[in-house]
Amino acid sequence: MTKKEIVRTISEEIGLTQLQTKEIVQKTFDAIVETLVADRRIELRNFGVFEVKERAPRMARNPRTGEKVEVPRKFVVTFKPGKEMEERVKELERQAAAAAAAGNSPPADSVAETMGASTGYDPNSGSS
Question: pLDDT, tens digit, for every residue of 31-48?
């Protein structure tokens, strides 16, 4: 799903124009990034935690030449999903395991319904 599809889905659900919704979605993303830069951590309940972590400098090897190269320290963003997200993704695993045991794959609609149950995402709305 792209940002454009998120905007379309939300705007249809809450009755704002796509332009208004796009501005809200972008401001939300901007606030997340600004908080990460300033505080290095943002916790969104029932969603997850974004955190900036520092990777130490290290020696690596160029796979083409075998030459050792120094990789400088860097900062990376990590994400740890919240319990609700983890449970919903685990449901996909359960569906896949049940389908494998039955000898077929789960229908796309059931996967989309599981992922969109509390987001209002409608797999039949044409925005996939």
Answer: 999 999 999 999 999 899
The count of other CB atoms within 10 Å of the CB of residue 122 is 14
pTM: 0.67
Positive or negative, the CA dihedral 76, 42, 24, 89 is positive
* Cα–Cα dist 56/33, whole Å: 22
In a domain, 97, yes or no: yes
Is residue 70, in this structure, part of any structural domain at all?
no
**60-72 pLDDT per residue, tens:** 999 999 999 999 9
Cα 11 vs. chain centroid, distance in angstroms?
20
Phi, psi for 113 (deg, rounded to 5): -65, -40
Token representation of residue 60: 């690596």
Yes or no: say if 25 and 9 are a contact pair by the CB < 8 Å rule.
no
- Quote the domain boundaries for residue 95: 82-123
Residue 39 in any domain: the answer is no
Name the 3-class secondary structure at 43.
strand
